[in-house]
Specification:
cell membrane; transmembrane helix; 2 domains; transport; TonB-dependent_transducer; globular
Length: 322
């Protein structure tokens, strides 16, 4: 196991999840249980995927609330079924199993630091992806920034999370094609269960049936390009969400300024990812995330199709009076 945080993360990226162009063709089936906002049992479903390359991929979502099949091909991406893409729970089921490691949007301009293990009864090696904070009235709470924890003996991912976002605990981990894969996983939202899932099937495909990856005649083509929308444009599409509170300690210390967050808004209008880019103070950053994470928007469309969009959200804290 490497000692340097950057080396640990690099080693882990090579061996966790299935998201690698060099991977051998694989097939997985996941059974999941979704919980409501109070942590009570909601609907169940399955997610199944056949992958034989970045442009040869079939994904099937099946539940009482969402049914859709997606085909990623050389000719583009196609869908059959529900028009609006995967809700947050279904999106996370795939992402936290297939692509669990941070991307460049997390690591670029971040300082990688060793961080205290948030699980005192389990030995873990944790790496935090720290962003710029101008003032600190006290130590940053664990998980203010994206946190990744690994088994101390090998770069096996056991936990990922961040304050105000959904925390993922990999309770059991197996291997498929020489890569670590969560087989029993729990995702929680501020301490309440959000979705649990387990790997029902997982195997490498010794032969590739090309017909599996061929979209049917009634499949609808989806927009290919990634969409970035200015924050002021997206602000006009906001449907719900409370304003952040001004922390008393920051106000007393006369700390003001703007918290800049990067966000990924799903096709369902919910915030699927939220990251701190910069902040004048820890407490202001926490306040901004706490409020913004629950904002919802009217789904953004491109050529008539709902699409997920990347945007920047600025939360301003202004002092009044002298």
């Amino acid at each position: 196991m490497p000692k340097n945080p950057a080396d640990i993360l690099a080693a882990a990226a090579k061996i966790n999840g299935l998201d690698s162009p060099e991977a051998k063709p694989w097939h997985i089936k996941i059974a999941y249980q979704v919980f409501d906002g109070e942590g009570k049992v909601g609907h169940t479903g399955t997610f199944e995927e056949w992958w034989a390359g970045p442009k040869k991929d079939k994904r099937v979502y099946t539940s009482s609330t969402f049914n859709r099949t997606e085909y990623v091909t050389e000719a583009g991406t196609f869908r059959v079924g529900d028009e609006v893409g995967p809700p947050l729970a279904e999106s996370l089921v795939r992402q936290r199993l297939v692509s669990p490691m941070p991307g460049s949007e997390d690591t670029d301009n971040a300082e990688l630091q060793r961080r205290d293990n948030p699980f005192p009864n389990t030995k873990l090696t944790c790496i935090e992806l720290v962003r710029k904070i101008d003032h600190q009235l006290g130590p940053s709470p664990v998980g203010l920034f994206p946190l990744y924890c690994f088994d101390p003996s090998a770069p096996m991912l056991r936990f990922s999370g961040s304050f105000g976002l959904l925390n993922t605990l990999y309770k059991k981990v197996g291997m498929l094609g020489g890569r670590y894969l969560g087989t029993d996983v729990s995702i929680s939202d501020t301490g309440k269960p959000f979705v649990d899932f387990h790997l029902a099937e997982g195997n490498l495909m010794t032969t590739v049936d090309e017909s599996i990856f061929a979209p049917p005649a009634n499949a609808i083509a989806l927009p290919e390009q990634s969409v970035t929308v200015e924050g002021k444009v997206l602000a006009g599409r906001k449907l719900n969400g409370s304003a952040p509170r001004y922390p008393a300690a920051a106000k007393s210390a006369r700390i003001s300024g703007t918290v800049i967050l990067s966000a990924l808004i799903g096709e369902d209008g919910r915030i699927h990812e939220l990251r701190i880019k910069s902040a004048p103070d820890v407490s202001l950053a926490l306040s901004a995330i706490e409020a913004v994470r629950d904002w919802t928007y009217a789904p953004y469309t491109l050529n008539g199709h709902p699409v997920e969009v990347s945007t920047e959200i600025r939360v301003m804290y202004r002092l009044s009076g002298g």
